[in-house]
Amino acid sequence: MVAKISTGSSLFGALAYNQDKVDRKEAEVLFSNKMLLSEDGRFSIGGCMRSFEMQMPIQLSTQKPILHISINPHPEDVLTDQQLADIAREYMQKLGYGGQPYLVYKHTDIDRHHIHIVGLRVDENGRPLNDRFEHRRSKQITRELESKYNLHPAEKKERTERPELKKVDYAAGDVKHQIGNTVKAACYGYRFQSFGEYRALLAAYNVCAEEVKGEVNGILYQGIVYSATNDKGEKVGNPVKASRIGKLVGYEAVQRRMERSVEAIKNGKLKERTRKIVAAAMQTARNRQEFEQELKRQGIDVVFRRNDSGRIYGVTFIDHDSRVVLNGSRLGKEFSANVFNERFLGETKKAQQPDVSISRQEQPTHREQADFTPKADIVSGVTSIVSAFGGLLGSGASGGDEPKDTASQKRKKKKKRVKRID
Questions:
Q1: Tens digits of per-residue pLDDT, 368-418?
Q2: Residue 50 CB partners (closer than 8 Å, separation 6+)
Q3: Strands (E), 34-101
Q4: CB neighbours (10 Å) of residue 61?
Q5: Domain that holds residue 46
Q6: What pTM value is reported for the model?
Q7: Strand, helix or coil at 329?
Q8: How many CB atoms lie within 10 A of CB 143?
Q9: Of 99, 127, 159, the domain-final residue
Q10: At what angle do helices 195-203 and 251-267 cross, to 10 degrees?
Q11: Are 313 and 403 in contact (CB under 8 A)?
Q12: pLDDT tens, residue by residue, 118-143
């Protein structure tokens, strides 16, 4: 059994994430602790928000008063709702939050049923409860619960916690739901430092992410839309605005994820493993197909981006073990797109994995679509966001993988009036 503890400032975000699962019949509320709810016993975001806010001190000495915990039993452990509720109650009691208001959800969206707990982590004076060595104590508590309930011990912690990332299958239907699951798993399961890297990750799972921006009634707006694609990278079906999936994968959330990823990748030295494996594969692989196969064998996918003439202008590595997405130039000049273009120049044999092309012709902006209108949540307060996001989408964001446009490409760009993002 694995427990993951998260703290934050957004009570609405934590409740909305779980309520979305409830609305989809993929989760249910097991029980609540010290919550002031309506007499009919129904749970809604508004009611839960009011209950928590009534018990939230006005003055806080921490910026992260919200607690969000997921407890994941081993896939082979089949537990009743009562057992899950008992485990949640005992876990919170032993961790020191037994007297706090909290909600316990049971998630059934994957075969391994698990629980999520949302609660307050501050006392009546607004001070955080004793969280010293919290993660160490949490591990000890889960071991005790495993022994008491005769559960399998925790193994491969990171893999157990990670949401499953699946390719979107347009023919299977319920495309919006498929896109939502894939986007959420990608956004919060991987680290990426630019919108281009985020796009490359999603493209490998048949999802196209596009930045949209414009002006309505003098108000600037900026957001993201997601579309399903086929295995050739061609968009199919209608685009889905991020607001229809949830704020957790919206413009601001993706921006925050990129900002946090910069520090996480630097401090955790997360690109070292990727660099070593890619360098070794470059030395031994005789052609592009062998190169891709060797990387895949070690848990790394590579996405090449080519223009209409076939020139490689971008390369991105997706390390599924380190859960990090890196443009080639982030690993060093010897891993840039130009190096791979020269190395594989003249090869006509296609690799097993299709290229993910992001050419101007294939990726029109939604500003050109007459039926696309921004939602209010995108419009409000966007001017500062546009400024912040623009810095991330500049020349530094792409990692320098893309060569300068040729004269003919510039004419195409002017004619199509399309902005390439990467």
A1: 343 444 444 444 444 443 443 343 334 333 334 444 444 445 455 444 444
A2: 36
A3: 66-72
A4: 12
A5: 2-159
A6: 0.49
A7: helix
A8: 14
A9: 159
A10: 100
A11: yes
A12: 999 999 888 988 778 888 899 999 99
